[in-house]
Amino acid sequence: MLKIQFEGYRLTSPFGWRIHPVHKTRKFHKGVDLVVSPSNGPLYAFVGGEFLHAKMGVTGSGFGNYGNTVAIWDDMGYLHIYAHMSSVSVTVGQRVKYGGKIGNQGSTGISAGPHLHYEIRKKTSPSFGFTVDESGVVEPTQYLINYYRQQPTVDKGEEPMTAEERDGSRIWKPHQKHKRNGSRLKSQGGVCALQRLHCR
Ligand SMILES: [Zn+2]
Predict the structure, then answer these.
(1) Which of 12, 55, 135, 171 is the most exposed place for a label (fewest CB within 10 A)?
(2) CA of 141 to the centre of ligand 1 (A)
């Protein structure tokens, strides 16, 4: 659960129209710029998902000028892009949980200085959903707020138990012990009464 959004980062440029820091022209900023210290500080996933891209973004890929880029496909089908990284420490096809390390901040590609450009695209294809205008992206801060509202609250690093696992610890395991000893089962009426599903 994201307790404080972008904790540890300085938000240096919001989503929306702005004068581009390198081109000096009016351009739509399709993500947010975040800065951590030191300049090559570690970056962690804001959402869990699968890596669809984890290398230098080349022209035509959908990540031209983005430098070293990691893209995570979340479970709602949106693509989370981490651009301008100095290094990437993950590989395509791997899965990550919220808070997993993905690499380090940098200034690769077209960038005015070390920062993380974080962008969320609506599509993952073609070319990773690249669009020239603002219609292909969403505002990241609001997206994350909505995203975590829709997710069950789970402690960092802890997976929720599935129904099967819950049954396993409460019913199935103790019963298995009895099952091996069928004759003793009848004498343990109390246990069977509690576990009517399995004891006859
Ligand atoms: Zn940016």
Answers:
(1) 135
(2) 14
Structure-token pair, residue 37: 């210290």
Domains and CATH numbers, the chain: 10-150 (2.70.70.10), 163-194 (no CATH)
Cα angle, residue 104 at apex, residues 139 and 137 outer, rounded to 5°: 15
Write out pLDDT tens, residues 164-192: 444 443 333 333 333 344 434 343 444 33
Strand 101-104 to 42-44 pairing? antiparallel
CA atoms 88, 89, 92, 94: torsion sign: negative
Ion ligand 1: residue ranges with CB closer than 5 A: 33, 117
Tokens for 92?
Answer: 């395509």
Which pTM does this prediction carry?
0.74
pLDDT tens, position by position, 71-103:
999 999 999 999 999 999 999 999 999 999 999
